[in-house]
Design a protein that fits this description.
Elements lengths: L33 E2 L9 E3 L4 E4 L7 H8 L5 E4 L3 H6 L10 E4 L9 H11 L3 H18 L1 H10 L8 E4 L6 H12 L4 H14 L1 H8 L17 H5 L3 H15 L2 H7 L5 H11 E3 L1
Parallel strand pairs: 3-6, 4-5, 4-6
Antiparallel strand pairs: 1-3, 2-7
Helix pairs in contact: 4-10, 6-7, 10-11
InterPro entries: Prot-tyrosine_phosphatase-like (IPR029021), Tyr/Ser_Pase_IphP-type (IPR026893)
Protein name: Tyrosine specific protein phosphatases domain-containing protein
Family: Belongs to the protein-tyrosine phosphatase family.
């Protein structure tokens, strides 16, 4: 059953065309922006309105998109992009009332484009690209667990809201951040996967443009098949499944991972729920 969104911050968008999903905030750029409001937990609570938004990069936006984004009254923006990504595409407009916090997750090394070029030059199939990406997901939750821990602990402060968090495409590093958060909030696995896969729907036009050559990447090797791009541009349920399996293998359970790697014991999880959840 679809949860009706009552996010008070979205009233500004009422005259805009309806999004592709009830939590989608429709803009030309960013295209993968949505609120987490309305996602329900297993005890019947929901993530409250005006708290958290996930997105692809908002570093450089057209004037109209910035105008719509301002309506969210953000207090914090968390940027998971690498230092080089931040340097190449800095946040152009920094409102004094918004804190932009860089929490880099350079899972492909600082120069992700160069690494993707290298991979596409050495693989023969999209399945190989997908396996490489699955390994990256495992690396994210273990090798960069300290970054996710810092972010999650920041959410224990009421001063962290409203907040938008993003990477470049808003699907992998941001997708992992969201999956970890929702797991801590006791959202069921089906809804976690649904939110994760929603990036494919919201990015469909972008993916099609890249796959058909209407919009090309400067780093794409000339002889590489565009079929190899699909795993890079989209998300697959296997990525998240492999990631959570890896967490269980490394730590015994997600609960142990939350305590050992994220520093989120019962007290912290309780505070997180107090800050984010409301009765349905």
């Amino acid at each position: 059953m679809t949860t009706e969104i009552t996010d008070k911050s979205l009233h500004y968008f009422s005259s805009r065309p309806r999004g592709k999903h009830h939590r989608h905030i429709p803009m030309e750029t960013p295209h993968n922006l949505r609120t987490l409001a309305g996602i329900s937990t297993q005890d019947g609570s929901v993530i409250a309105s005006g708290k958290l938004y996930r997105s692809d990069s908002i570093a450089q936006l057209p004037t109209l998109s910035q105008k719509y984004l301002d309506a969210l009254d953000l207090r914090v923006v968390t940027d998971f992009r690498s230092s080089l990504e931040q340097q190449n595409t800095p946040h152009q407009r920094c409102v004094e009332s918004i804190r932009v916090i860089h929490r880099p997750i350079p899972v492909m090394g600082d120069n992700g484009r160069a690494e993707m070029t290298r991979v596409l030059q050495t693989v023969d199939s999209a399945d190989e690209v997908a396996r490489w990406l699955s390994d990256l997901y495992c690396s994210m939750v273990i090798d960069f667990s300290d970054v996710y821990a810092e972010w999650l602990h920041s959410l224990l402060s009421v001063d962290s809201y409203p907040q938008l968090y993003h990477c470049t495409a808003g699907k992998d590093r941001t997708g992992v951040a969201t999956a970890l958060l929702l797991k801590l909030l006791d959202v069921d696995d089906g809804q976690i996967m649904e939110d994760y896969l929603l990036s494919n729907d919201l990015s469909a036009d972008y993916i099609t443009a890249r796959m058909t050559g209407k919009s090309t990447f400067s780093w794409m090797p000339e002889k590489a098949s565009t079929d190899l791009l699909r795993p890079l541009l989209s998300v697959q349920k296997e990525f998240l499944q492999v990631m959570f399996s890896h967490i269980n293998e490394e730590c015994g359970s997600f609960s142990h991972y939350a305590q050992q790697r994220l520093g989120m014991a019962e007290k912290e999880i309780r505070q997180l729920k107090n800050n984010l959840l409301s009765p349905q």
